[in-house]
Design brief:
Layout (H helix, E strand, L loop, with lengths): L5 E4 L2 E4 L2 H24 L3 H25 L3
Antiparallel strand pairs: 1-2
Helix pairs in contact: 1-2
Length: about 70
Amino acid sequence: MAFVCFKKLGWIYRPTSIIGGIITVITVLLCLQIFIFVDFHYHSVSYTFYGVFLYIVSYFVVAGWITSNTSE
């Protein structure tokens, strides 16, 4: 029996367990931390976007892979 952490809800996944909630919170906090760090060093919107884009996309790709493999 597989451990289900997320439930598919259209195009997104909703956490259904404590582990799923922790994964979601960690992903959001990592993205927020990268945004604050990059925004502190760059004073342009485009530089900030270029600086955070790869990190945020990679975090959401990994989180998406985890959610798709632990969903119903």
